[in-house]
Amino acid sequence: SLFFLSRTQNEGHPKWFVLGVGQVIKGLDIAMMNMCPGEKRKVTIPPSLAYGQQGYVQGKIPPNATLIFEIELYAVNKGPRSVEAFNQIDKDNDRKLSELEISQYLKEEFARDGKKRHPSVHDEILADIFKKNDHDGDGFISAKEYNVYQHDEL
Q1: Could you tell me if 97 and 141 are in contact, meaning their C-beta atoms sit under 8 angstroms apart?
Q2: Which CATH class, in words, describes the domain spanning 2-73?
Q3: Which segments within 55-132 are labelled E, that is strand?
Q4: What residue stretches are annotated with the EF-hand domain (predicted)?
Q5: Buried b (16+ CB within 10 A) or exposed e, 60-76
Q6: Domain 83-142 is classified in which CATH homologous superfamily?
Q7: Where are the domains positioned within the chain?
Q8: Coil, helix or strand for 70?
Q9: Residue 146: which residues within 8 A CB-CB, separation 6 or more?
């Protein structure tokens, strides 16, 4: 699922991220579980669930820092990369998406929206999906690879 997060030290600019896949510090993943849209929480996150002994240079967070966040959840969306979507594409339930499975899914999606497309568009999109998501180059997109959002998709 996608979550909308506002942080005070970020001038309150909302930020989209996927909960539970390590896009944010572990403490925020835990603190935002079961939050409802419109809910606000003030959370204190110990170093072990934040940046630990390393700190975070760019953000000027020193080593072993305890972080305090004021969070407001604006919206929750089931992203196109939800677990449900993955399972829908993964027809043989082997927890990885083959070229054939994704190809079939694209055909179904194209049929659903009814737009006329040149057949080469399908192959280009399929190639692009594997180029961006098959990080280990094994010809499959694993559940982990599928769940990582590319920045241009946020």
Answers
A1: yes
A2: alpha beta
A3: 67-77, 96-97
A4: 77-112, 121-154
A5: ebeeebebebebbbeee
A6: EF-hand (1.10.238.10)
A7: 2-73, 83-142
A8: strand
A9: 81, 86, 97, 133
| Measured distance CA(47)–CA(67) in Å, rounded | 7
* Helical H segments across 38-90, by residue range: 83-89
Query: What is the rounded distance in angstroms from the CA atom of residue 6 to the CA atom of residue 128?
Result: 32
Q: Are 22 and 29 in contact (CB under 8 A)?
A: yes
CB atoms within 10 A of CB 50: 19
36 CB-side CA count, 13 A:
1
End-to-end CA distance of the chain: 12
Whether 52 and 34 have beta carbons less than 8 Å apart is answered as no
Cα distances (Å, whole numbers) of residue 138 to 76, 125, 150:
33, 18, 19
Location of structure tokens 């390590």:
22
User: What pLDDT digit, counting tens, does each position of 26-82 carry?
Assistant: 898 889 888 888 889 999 999 999 999 988 877 678 888 898 888 888 777 666 666
